[in-house]
Amino acid sequence: MKQIIEIVPNFSEGKSKAIMEEVIAPFKGLGGTKLLNLEMDASYNRSVVTVIGEVDSVVKGIVESAEIAVRLIDMREHKGEHPRMGALDVLPIIPIQGISEEECIELSYEIGEAIFKKTGIPIYFYALSRKRPQCENLPDIRKGEFEGLAEKMQDPFWRADYGDVPHQSAGAIAVGCRKPLIAYNIDTDSPSKKKVLRIARRVRFSGGGYRYIQAGAAKLMDRNICQVTMNLTDYTKTALYQAYEAVKMEACRYGIEITASEIVGLVPKDCLLSSLRYYLNKDDDENLDLKLEEIVELVKKYLKFRDFSVEKIIEYYLD
Amino acid sequence: MKQIIEIVPNFSEGKSKAIMEEVIAPFKGLGGTKLLNLEMDASYNRSVVTVIGEVDSVVKGIVESAEIAVRLIDMREHKGEHPRMGALDVLPIIPIQGISEEECIELSYEIGEAIFKKTGIPIYFYALSRKRPQCENLPDIRKGEFEGLAEKMQDPFWRADYGDVPHQSAGAIAVGCRKPLIAYNIDTDSPSKKKVLRIARRVRFSGGGYRYIQAGAAKLMDRNICQVTMNLTDYTKTALYQAYEAVKMEACRYGIEITASEIVGLVPKDCLLSSLRYYLNKDDDENLDLKLEEIVELVKKYLKFRDFSVEKIIEYYLD
User: Fold this and answer.
1) Engineered SS bond to B54: which of A62, B32, B41, B235, CB 3.0-4.6 Å?
2) Which of A296, A300, A289, A298 is nearest to A311 (CA)?
């Protein structure tokens, strides 16, 4: 079996399509990788790139892409609403197939070292690749942002894993292996952000809810309704169906109903199957032999997925 | 407002009613305290005592009770199924009314010191009163039990907060302030412990479930059904209704239904009101002006409480 990983590099450029086309060029026409998505956000001034592929090809691509980003993105002139510390700001690496979490952590160290050697940009290993407890959470590393980095890196507590001072125009990069994170939003029929936030608070970990749910409320202005917007940080433990049913249960208090739900980005087949087992009255360890097309129909039925198709399932891109 | 606390001392004697009557005698006829419950378990060879009352009276009572326990309970001869390290094994102290958590932690230090000075029994401060991270969880402190205590206390990592060596017949005591813990069981109509354990796993924190739920499965032999047996470790964050509805939702997968639920021990009124607000479609901060009798009827209706009456609500014992 081929070793397949996903990377989701975030770059500090969300306005210039021309620049981002150059930055992602190494992933195009490179055998063994698929560029799945480029999502540019102008107000964040930030782009999120999703690439999946064989280990060697993806590594080659991201090192080249980082070199291009250093040349084209100058943090000294960068403004945007999203916190950031580098031109290539963060590089999450996710094991997909034929590679263990441990191997993927090792791989993140190789990638970090390779980027540092090519570009001189300091590297922080974060998430599962952290070498110190304070480096587990990206927001802690990034606090102070690009502008505060030179001072922060002088503090021994916040030294980087590679490099002693920030790159003058490209800052620093957080590199780390993490579990697949599912971005999952549930549409309600309520225009009240206050009520939907209360639902989110009851469902999320910080409010006493499910262990692996982060949640907030977001208003969709065009439709005048609010969403519970969530991250499932370990779908193998807290499943989609639990998020869906918990939101439905909490919404009940306010007479609010769920009208639809959506996956942002990609989702592993396993994540969908574990929730379909619930609705099909199967046990967690029972086999479900379904084609991708069948899975799509079933999640639309049971979880009211909208805007969903086989192209959103990671396995669609694998052999 | 009077300062009211609850204490739940656990003594290593569960067979002799005569001994336990002497141990709890200080709480009887003592103004300002109410002895709410004495629960003796012969196979555990352990008794759980629940006392509620004004701070000064409760402190006076427990110090006397500890002195009696040292005289009557000899750990060198003690056998029982429950882990234990002392004659008075653990002393949880819970703030109920007019006293903050911080004040209650301070109080636990005073009580620990008083018991040590009167009896010479070493004291470990645990739970919210822990002075070192390794002392947060009682099972960690108690590991090795009475028989292993002398050796354990020589390890600097496991020195006691008061005392250098175990009391020869009474071992050591864990003393600490903790939040009110709700023991809550849900009866299912299923005789399958395997299935009910799977429900419990999905609901509990360790399996990806709610943050403040600990859960397992227990078979009720006389009725040939299984319970999901739970501790809610912070009911202000994870509410009863969430535990109930989550179990109902997970049980659905197996065609299992909830037939009843029960509170073991006492429950604060607040805990019931916060769940009734959910079922009465009120918001978390809305006032609910209900008499204790009305609360009893409503929780029987919505949460299928069995064997429940005003005597199980802590406020019943307060002015």
Assistant:
1) B32
2) A296
